[in-house]
Design goal:
single chain, Rossmann fold, seven-stranded parallel beta sheet
Length: 260
Protein backbone atom coordinates (compact mmCIF):
# COMPACT_ATOMS: atom_id res chain seq x y z
CA UNK A 1 0.00 0.00 0.00
CA UNK A 2 1.37 3.39 -0.98
CA UNK A 3 0.47 6.67 0.66
CA UNK A 4 1.01 10.19 -0.61
CA UNK A 5 0.31 13.61 0.84
CA UNK A 6 -1.36 16.00 -1.57
CA UNK A 7 -1.45 19.68 -0.63
CA UNK A 8 -2.94 20.87 -3.90
CA UNK A 9 -5.19 23.87 -3.37
CA UNK A 10 -3.48 24.85 -0.11
CA UNK A 11 -1.53 28.06 0.49
CA UNK A 12 1.59 27.71 2.64
CA UNK A 13 3.51 30.63 4.14
CA UNK A 14 7.14 29.89 5.07
CA UNK A 15 9.15 32.39 7.11
CA UNK A 16 12.93 32.51 6.96
CA UNK A 17 12.69 30.94 3.50
CA UNK A 18 15.78 32.51 1.97
CA UNK A 19 18.18 29.73 2.99
CA UNK A 20 18.73 26.56 4.99
CA UNK A 21 15.75 24.77 6.47
CA UNK A 22 13.26 27.41 5.34
CA UNK A 23 14.25 27.02 1.70
CA UNK A 24 13.98 23.24 1.97
CA UNK A 25 10.57 23.48 3.65
CA UNK A 26 9.36 25.68 0.79
CA UNK A 27 10.61 23.25 -1.88
CA UNK A 28 8.99 20.30 -0.09
CA UNK A 29 5.60 21.97 0.26
CA UNK A 30 5.66 23.13 -3.36
CA UNK A 31 6.51 19.61 -4.53
CA UNK A 32 3.47 18.39 -2.57
CA UNK A 33 1.27 20.78 -4.53
CA UNK A 34 0.91 23.79 -2.23
CA UNK A 35 1.19 27.37 -3.44
CA UNK A 36 4.11 28.60 -1.37
CA UNK A 37 4.65 32.15 -0.12
CA UNK A 38 8.32 32.80 0.65
CA UNK A 39 8.99 35.32 3.41
CA UNK A 40 12.34 36.81 4.45
CA UNK A 41 14.31 40.03 4.58
CA UNK A 42 16.62 38.79 1.80
CA UNK A 43 14.21 39.26 -1.09
CA UNK A 44 16.75 38.66 -3.87
CA UNK A 45 17.49 35.20 -2.50
CA UNK A 46 13.77 34.52 -2.33
CA UNK A 47 13.46 35.41 -6.00
CA UNK A 48 16.15 32.86 -6.82
CA UNK A 49 14.29 30.21 -4.84
CA UNK A 50 11.03 31.17 -6.52
CA UNK A 51 12.64 30.61 -9.91
CA UNK A 52 13.89 27.21 -8.77
CA UNK A 53 10.43 26.17 -7.56
CA UNK A 54 8.76 27.42 -10.73
CA UNK A 55 11.39 25.49 -12.68
CA UNK A 56 10.02 22.16 -11.44
CA UNK A 57 6.42 23.26 -11.96
CA UNK A 58 5.69 24.61 -8.50
CA UNK A 59 3.87 27.78 -7.50
CA UNK A 60 5.86 30.30 -5.43
CA UNK A 61 5.43 33.92 -4.41
CA UNK A 62 7.77 36.37 -2.67
CA UNK A 63 7.04 38.76 0.20
CA UNK A 64 9.41 40.91 2.21
CA UNK A 65 9.27 40.01 5.90
CA UNK A 66 11.08 41.13 9.03
CA UNK A 67 9.67 39.12 11.92
CA UNK A 68 11.03 41.62 14.47
CA UNK A 69 8.73 44.32 13.03
CA UNK A 70 4.99 43.90 13.64
CA UNK A 71 4.09 46.24 10.77
CA UNK A 72 6.19 44.09 8.46
CA UNK A 73 4.44 40.95 9.70
CA UNK A 74 0.97 42.39 9.10
CA UNK A 75 1.97 43.69 5.68
CA UNK A 76 3.56 40.40 4.59
CA UNK A 77 0.58 38.29 5.67
CA UNK A 78 -1.89 40.67 4.03
CA UNK A 79 0.19 40.66 0.83
CA UNK A 80 0.32 36.86 0.86
CA UNK A 81 -3.45 36.52 1.22
CA UNK A 82 -4.17 39.19 -1.38
CA UNK A 83 -1.97 37.44 -3.91
CA UNK A 84 -2.69 33.78 -3.12
CA UNK A 85 -5.80 33.58 -0.97
CA UNK A 86 -6.22 32.58 2.68
CA UNK A 87 -3.20 30.95 4.31
CA UNK A 88 -3.83 27.30 5.16
CA UNK A 89 -0.34 26.39 6.38
CA UNK A 90 2.22 28.42 8.31
CA UNK A 91 5.76 27.15 8.74
CA UNK A 92 7.10 29.47 11.42
CA UNK A 93 10.81 29.02 10.78
CA UNK A 94 12.76 32.28 11.19
CA UNK A 95 15.55 31.94 13.73
CA UNK A 96 18.96 33.27 14.78
CA UNK A 97 21.58 32.42 17.39
CA UNK A 98 24.72 33.64 19.09
CA UNK A 99 27.51 31.62 20.67
CA UNK A 100 28.92 32.67 24.03
CA UNK A 101 28.88 31.95 27.73
CA UNK A 102 25.88 33.29 29.64
CA UNK A 103 28.15 35.65 31.55
CA UNK A 104 29.15 37.26 28.25
CA UNK A 105 25.62 37.83 26.91
CA UNK A 106 24.85 41.50 26.39
CA UNK A 107 21.37 43.03 26.32
CA UNK A 108 21.86 43.42 22.58
CA UNK A 109 22.69 39.71 22.19
CA UNK A 110 19.68 38.73 24.26
CA UNK A 111 17.27 40.95 22.33
CA UNK A 112 18.70 39.81 18.99
CA UNK A 113 17.85 36.17 19.71
CA UNK A 114 14.60 36.64 21.63
CA UNK A 115 13.14 39.23 19.23
CA UNK A 116 13.40 36.81 16.30
CA UNK A 117 13.03 33.36 17.82
CA UNK A 118 10.34 34.01 20.43
CA UNK A 119 8.67 37.39 19.93
CA UNK A 120 8.80 37.18 16.14
CA UNK A 121 7.53 33.61 16.05
CA UNK A 122 4.65 34.52 18.36
CA UNK A 123 3.43 37.53 16.41
CA UNK A 124 3.71 35.79 13.03
CA UNK A 125 1.61 32.91 14.38
CA UNK A 126 -0.80 35.34 16.01
CA UNK A 127 -1.38 37.28 12.78
CA UNK A 128 -1.97 34.14 10.75
CA UNK A 129 -3.96 32.53 13.57
CA UNK A 130 -6.36 35.47 13.84
CA UNK A 131 -7.14 35.18 10.15
CA UNK A 132 -7.62 31.42 10.37
CA UNK A 133 -10.00 31.89 13.32
CA UNK A 134 -12.01 34.56 11.50
CA UNK A 135 -12.32 32.31 8.47
CA UNK A 136 -13.47 29.42 10.67
CA UNK A 137 -16.12 31.53 12.42
CA UNK A 138 -17.57 32.81 9.17
CA UNK A 139 -17.58 29.55 7.24
CA UNK A 140 -20.62 27.71 5.99
CA UNK A 141 -21.31 24.36 7.69
CA UNK A 142 -19.19 21.58 6.21
CA UNK A 143 -16.65 23.95 4.69
CA UNK A 144 -12.99 23.09 5.29
CA UNK A 145 -11.55 25.99 7.25
CA UNK A 146 -8.87 24.40 9.36
CA UNK A 147 -5.25 25.42 9.42
CA UNK A 148 -1.86 23.96 10.12
CA UNK A 149 0.79 25.91 12.02
CA UNK A 150 4.19 24.27 12.36
CA UNK A 151 6.57 26.09 14.67
CA UNK A 152 10.22 25.23 14.15
CA UNK A 153 11.72 24.91 17.61
CA UNK A 154 14.89 22.91 18.33
CA UNK A 155 16.27 20.03 20.32
CA UNK A 156 17.98 22.87 22.19
CA UNK A 157 14.53 23.82 23.47
CA UNK A 158 14.29 20.42 25.15
CA UNK A 159 17.89 19.89 26.24
CA UNK A 160 20.20 22.67 27.41
CA UNK A 161 23.38 22.98 25.36
CA UNK A 162 26.52 24.88 26.29
CA UNK A 163 27.48 28.22 24.75
CA UNK A 164 23.98 28.84 23.30
CA UNK A 165 21.96 29.30 26.47
CA UNK A 166 19.82 32.19 25.22
CA UNK A 167 19.01 30.26 22.05
CA UNK A 168 17.93 27.30 24.20
CA UNK A 169 15.71 29.60 26.25
CA UNK A 170 14.13 31.10 23.14
CA UNK A 171 13.31 27.71 21.63
CA UNK A 172 11.98 26.35 24.93
CA UNK A 173 9.54 29.25 24.83
CA UNK A 174 8.51 28.24 21.29
CA UNK A 175 7.75 24.73 22.54
CA UNK A 176 5.42 26.05 25.25
CA UNK A 177 3.97 28.61 22.86
CA UNK A 178 3.05 25.75 20.53
CA UNK A 179 1.12 23.96 23.25
CA UNK A 180 -0.67 27.14 24.31
CA UNK A 181 -1.78 27.88 20.76
CA UNK A 182 -2.88 24.27 20.24
CA UNK A 183 -5.04 24.50 23.34
CA UNK A 184 -6.72 27.80 22.45
CA UNK A 185 -7.04 27.42 18.69
CA UNK A 186 -7.85 23.74 18.30
CA UNK A 187 -11.59 24.43 18.56
CA UNK A 188 -11.35 26.38 15.31
CA UNK A 189 -9.83 23.47 13.40
CA UNK A 190 -6.32 24.89 13.68
CA UNK A 191 -3.65 22.36 14.53
CA UNK A 192 -0.47 23.81 16.02
CA UNK A 193 2.57 21.56 16.35
CA UNK A 194 6.33 21.93 16.62
CA UNK A 195 9.33 20.26 15.05
CA UNK A 196 12.51 20.14 17.14
CA UNK A 197 15.39 19.46 14.76
CA UNK A 198 18.73 18.22 15.99
CA UNK A 199 22.00 19.15 14.33
CA UNK A 200 21.34 19.75 10.62
CA UNK A 201 23.95 20.56 7.99
CA UNK A 202 23.06 23.87 6.33
CA UNK A 203 25.00 26.55 4.51
CA UNK A 204 25.33 28.51 7.74
CA UNK A 205 27.12 25.79 9.69
CA UNK A 206 28.49 23.57 6.91
CA UNK A 207 32.09 24.70 7.44
CA UNK A 208 31.92 23.91 11.16
CA UNK A 209 31.71 20.13 10.77
CA UNK A 210 35.21 20.01 9.27
CA UNK A 211 36.79 21.86 12.20
CA UNK A 212 38.29 20.15 15.23
CA UNK A 213 35.47 21.37 17.45
CA UNK A 214 32.88 20.28 14.89
CA UNK A 215 34.36 16.80 14.61
CA UNK A 216 34.32 16.43 18.40
CA UNK A 217 30.65 17.40 18.43
CA UNK A 218 29.78 14.86 15.73
CA UNK A 219 31.59 12.16 17.72
CA UNK A 220 29.28 12.93 20.67
CA UNK A 221 26.11 12.37 18.64
CA UNK A 222 24.31 9.02 19.02
CA UNK A 223 25.09 7.86 15.49
CA UNK A 224 28.00 10.21 14.85
CA UNK A 225 26.34 12.08 12.03
CA UNK A 226 24.49 15.32 11.38
CA UNK A 227 21.25 15.46 9.48
CA UNK A 228 20.40 16.97 6.12
CA UNK A 229 17.54 19.43 5.60
CA UNK A 230 15.63 16.79 3.62
CA UNK A 231 15.58 14.60 6.73
CA UNK A 232 12.81 16.86 8.06
CA UNK A 233 10.61 16.49 4.96
CA UNK A 234 8.41 13.63 6.14
CA UNK A 235 7.80 15.21 9.55
CA UNK A 236 6.83 18.51 7.96
CA UNK A 237 4.49 16.94 5.43
CA UNK A 238 2.81 14.80 8.06
CA UNK A 239 2.05 17.82 10.25
CA UNK A 240 0.81 19.88 7.29
CA UNK A 241 -1.38 17.19 5.76
CA UNK A 242 -5.15 17.47 5.68
CA UNK A 243 -5.21 14.03 7.27
CA UNK A 244 -3.32 15.19 10.37
CA UNK A 245 -6.45 16.65 11.98
CA UNK A 246 -5.94 14.55 15.14
CA UNK A 247 -2.35 15.74 15.72
CA UNK A 248 -2.44 18.90 17.81
CA UNK A 249 0.03 20.23 20.36
CA UNK A 250 2.67 17.67 19.41
CA UNK A 251 6.37 18.46 19.88
CA UNK A 252 8.20 16.21 17.46
CA UNK A 253 11.89 15.50 18.03
CA UNK A 254 13.72 14.94 14.74
CA UNK A 255 17.25 14.69 16.05
CA UNK A 256 18.52 11.14 15.40
CA UNK A 257 18.13 10.35 19.10
CA UNK A 258 20.22 13.21 20.43
CA UNK A 259 17.73 14.30 23.11
CA UNK A 260 16.97 10.79 24.35
Amino acid sequence: MSYSIDLSGRVAFVTGASSGLGAQFARTLAEAGAAVVLGSRRVERLKTLRAEIEGFGGDAHVVSLDVTDNDSIRSAVAHAETECGPIDILVNNSGVSTTQKLTDVTPEDYDYVMDTNTRGAFFVAQEVGKRMIARSKGAAPGTWTGGRIVNIASTAGLRVLGQIGVYCMSKAAVVHMTRSMALEWGRYGINVNAICPGYIDTEINHHHWATEQGKKLVDMLPRRRVGQPKDLDTSLLMLCANESHFVNGAVLQVDDGFAV
